[in-house]
Each structure stands twice: as structure tokens, then as C-alpha cells.
UniProtKB/TrEMBL annotation:
Belongs to the thaumatin family. This is Thaumatin-like protein. Keywords: Cytoplasmic vesicle, Disulfide bond, Signal, Taste-modifying protein. Residues 1-22 form the signal peptide. It comes from Zingiber officinale (Ginger). SMART domains: THN (SM00205). Its main location: cytoplasm. One of its GO terms (cellular component) is cytoplasmic vesicle. InterPro entries: Thaumatin.
Amino acid sequence: MATSTSAVLCFFLFLLPLSINAATFQIVNSCSFTVWAAWATTGPRAGGGNQLNPGQSWTININAGATGGRIWPRTGCSSDGRGCQTGDCGMLQCQGYGRAPNTLAEFSLNQFNNLDFFDISNVDGYNVGIDFSPTTGGCRGIRCSANIVGECPAQLRAPGGCNNPCTVFGTPEYCCTNGPCGPTDFSRFFKTRCPDAYSYPQDDATSTFTCPGGTNYRVTFCP
């Protein structure tokens, strides 16, 4: 009897950290068109995807400690989630990042001081507006939902979206590949429209936000 009780106790102790620390992300499509939602993390390498018709939502659980996390909208996909016009990863169930242009909701969970770090990024361009808001934890949400596609500079225009300058030009000035870098006219185009979002790779000071580890989140497309 004692052995049986110990086994049950160990089982629940094993489950307890998972139930406390895993983060729940609800992904909501508030667009008037179908969006193929995708997510991926690099540590550990994992991912997924799902077709969301207007008004539909999808809930995913991400393990505590996950890093390099992204959630993004794909548009103009075939019925099997392939060949997307924006954000394509080559399959419905993404196992890696998508192709620019795509607006990104980024996160790393339970990091320094057990904080979650999260942001919205236009570093890979923009295709669909995003609201990224905690649903627990008592911290503020962020949003980028300007008319960036309609106002996109001619040099950055792409079918269904607005590219980032690094994708278009590939130079250190825009890609920040030669040490410290600063804003450019193109990054300022994104920053003035979405002040809370990353506009170039080293735009950290005004673009990274934190919540206590264990917070849950909602990502809304076309908020």
C-alpha cells in the first residue's frame, strides 16, 4: 500500500510543474479572411499550424523555458496550408520559421528572473495586424495594426505584405550584421506606425516587454 501511495504521489509531483509553468496561447482570427496560423520555437525545436476561418480560434500550450518562440499569420495558402503568399513554411504544421513578409509575435518563456520576454516584430516585414496581450499576470499588451501594407514604400512592396529592408537589400546597414546598428528611414516607416514593435534587429529598448513566468497570452490577427 505504501509503495502504491508513493507512486501516485510521484506521478502528481511530476505533473505539477507542467501544469504551473506551461503557457497557454489563444490565437484568434478576427480578420475577414482565412488565415493559416503558425508557431515555432527553436529551444526546443517544435512547431505547428492550423487553418483559421474568420472568427475561429486555436489554443496551444508551450512548455516552460521555451525560447525563440514565434506565432505568425500566413495568408494566401492552398487548402493544405502550403504555398502561402506570405509567411510560408512549406507545410501546414510548421516546424521552423516562415518566409518574409510576416508580422511576428515573439516570445521566450521563464528566462532571466523567471520572466517571460515578448514582443511584436516587423523585422521580417508585415502582412497582418497583431495584438499580443497577456490574459493573466497583470501586465500590458502590445499591438501593431496600422495600414502598413497600403502605405508600404515602393521598394519594400510584396504581394500580400510589406517586406523588411534586410530581405530586399541584404546589406549590413539593414541587417545589422557588422556590430551595432541604428534606425534607418525604412525602420522609421515601421516605427512611426507601430511604436511598440521591433522595426530593425537592434531596436530592443522600446520593443521588448516582460511578464511573470507562467502568464497566459492571446494573439489576435486583425485586432
